[in-house]
Amino acid sequence: MKMKLGLSTYTLTWSVGVPGYARPQEALTAEALVKLARSHGLNLLQIADNLPLHLRTEDELLRLKRTADEHGVELEVGTRGTEPELLLRYLAIAGTLGSSIVRTIVTTPDLAAAESHIREALPAYEAADVVLAVENHGLHTTGQLVQLFQNLNHAHVGCCLDTVNSFGALEAPDHVVRALSPYLVNLHIKDFDIRRVDHMMGFEILGTPAGEGRLDIPQLREIIAASGKTGVNAILELWTPYANSVEDTIAVERDWMERSIAYLRSVHFMEEEDNDYATRNVERESL
To answer: Is the pLDDT of residue 268 over 90?
Structure first.
């Protein structure tokens, strides 16, 4: 099974900027991320809520679309929340940027209210042929999200399945992937490790490069293949821990990104992109 692999604003989160920490010396823009993805042989970028697109003017969005088109990179848009006005605003942004999905997160414990909000926006999504991808984010259990998707029962809403987020709901990745894969419309690949703290009384869940942690990526591939969802896009995300300074952490996350891409390519998880293009441009692009 091969899927189209892309980067996200949550692949290089420290390079974009993390609230509460020093700003990067040169924070990555969406345009820079487009070029970075292409220089690594990828033609997909998901721009999520940590680089909010609704703060851009229409002219700025059009310039971003031109940059993506010039580099042959498909854009996906993301936000957080289910208020109808927000979902419709991001549907318009998806139209401008040519995104086939809008990824979002349910931010209220009240799933019934979120369901009502989504129902209100769904006719417009259907008319535009854009899919609303609701991410599991730890606030709700997998069972609750399955019930949400069953209640909505609509071809233009599904799951943006994150492999690690549901630890927040005390659920392991294999259970989450099996339960949510029937509703899969977008995948976030995020690897992890679990370690005891130094005094032995407790554990930490930490990110790792893809293929270097406890996420069973071959099993993930098999489950998705069995569900018949092999045509969805896969987005690499990283939980890179802080390392001494923001600039040191940026260097770590860039290294993790490269190791992750290399691993996913080695196990044939991703489609083969135009790697000649990457070779020609990796030295030319100054990011």
So the answer is: no
Number of Cβ atoms within 10 Å of the Cβ of 82: 23
Residue 119 DSSP SS3? helix
Question: For the CA atoms of the chain, what is the radius of gyration?
Answer: 18
Percentage of the chain exceeding pLDDT 90: 91
Strand ranges (E), the chain: 5-8, 44-47, 74-78, 101-105, 131-135, 157-162, 184-189, 191-196, 203-208, 233-236
Phi, psi (degrees; rounded to nearest 5) at 77: -115, 155
For 217, phi and psi rounded to 5 degrees? -70, -40
Tell whether the model's pLDDT for residue 277 goes beyond 50. Answer: no
pTM of the model: 0.94
pLDDT beyond 90 at 174: yes
pLDDT given at position 102 = 98
pLDDT value of position 273:
58
Of the spans 37-46, 223-232, 268-277, which averages the highest pLDDT? 37-46
Q: Rounded to an integer, what distance in angstroms lies between the CA atom of residue 185 and that of residue 149?
A: 12
Contact 41, 11 (CB under 8 A): no
**82 Cβ neighbours under 8 A, 6+ residues apart:** 104, 106, 107, 108, 113, 114, 117, 118, 134
Question: CA–CA separation, 12 vs 247, rounded Å?
Answer: 12
The domains located in the chain, with CATH, are: 5-281 (3.20.20.150)
Closest CA to 48 of 108, 92, 101, 124: 101
Please give the single-letter amino acid code of residue 107: T
Please check whether residue 129 is in contact with residue 140, taking contact to mean a CB–CB distance below 8 angstroms.
Answer: no
Q: How far is CA 27 from CA 22, 30, 94, 143, 227, in A?
A: 11, 10, 24, 38, 39
